[in-house]
Each structure stands twice: as C-alpha cells, then as structure tokens.
Amino acid sequence: MNSPAFGTGDASYQAAGGIDGLRRLVDDFYRLMDERPDARSVRQMHPENLDASRDKLACFLSGWLGGPKLFSERYGSIAIPAFHARWPIDESHSEIWLQCMAQAIALQGYSAAFSEYLLRQLHVPAQRIVQASRNRHTQA
Q: Which of 23, 63, 97, 98 has a CB 3.0–4.6 Å from the CB of 69, allowing a cystine?
C-alpha cells in the first residue's frame, strides 16, 4: 500500500508525528537557536520567554502541514510575511533560521524523503518573509 504524497491531505502532518511530533521539532529548533552563537541575531527577535513562540510555531506548522488549524483556532488569522516584516529580516537571518530548522529536523528521525520535503517547503515562507521585510524597510 502506498502512503499519500506529502502535501496531500494530512500526510505531511502525520509524517511529522502530529502535534506531539511538531512540538518536539519546535522545542529542538528553539533549543538550537539558544545554543548556536551564529543564531543570536535571530534569537534576539524573539521574546526572552519562548513559551508563546513555541506554541505559535507548532500550531502554525500543524495547519500548514495539513493537520488541525490550531493557529487560527487559538490566535486568529495571520499573514506570516506581513507579521514578520516589522523586523529587518535579510537573507542571512533567513539562512540561520533555516539552518536551525534543518538541524532540528535531522534530530526527529523523519524519513529522508520527508525531511527533504519539509525543508524545501520551509524555504518558501522564509523567502517571502525576507521579501516582505525588504519591501517595508526600503520604503521607510
């Protein structure tokens, strides 16, 4: 029996281990951001206490990967690039964020196919955030 392709229905959400798997991913991601000196500039864009950031990212990823729309249920709607545009985020910030996420993904025991798919998909909003930030901060 073939499993559904990632990006179809909740296949990606299931591959990530559901909300519990996503919370583990997010916990590892923020731990790495705290530990990596090269991530300091990105970590400083977050509050000291990461509890709300952890919940928001896990809830966002849940809906984004085809699972329950937890973010909108808890926090309402959000335009990810526009929300992040308040900070001057450039390609180096995006790359650091993606490196921390890649390292966190590698710790999850996901299949190689899902790990590659997830990281490739995360590049899309990361680039949109950089573009939205650039547009906002060059017009100011």
A: 63
Is residue 2 over pLDDT 80? no
Asked whether 74 and 68 are in contact (CB, 8 A), the reply is no
Q: Domains in the chain, start-ordered, CATH in brackets?
A: 11-139 (1.10.490.10)
Residue type, 38: D
Segment 80-104, tens digit of pLDDT = 766 776 778 889 999 999 999 999 9
Based on its alpha-carbon atoms, the radius of gyration of the chain, rounded to whole angstroms, reads 15
CA-based nearest residue to 111, from 29, 33, 14, 1: 14
State the alpha helices, DSSP H only, in the chain: 11-15, 18-35, 40-43, 51-64, 70-75, 80-84, 91-106, 112-139
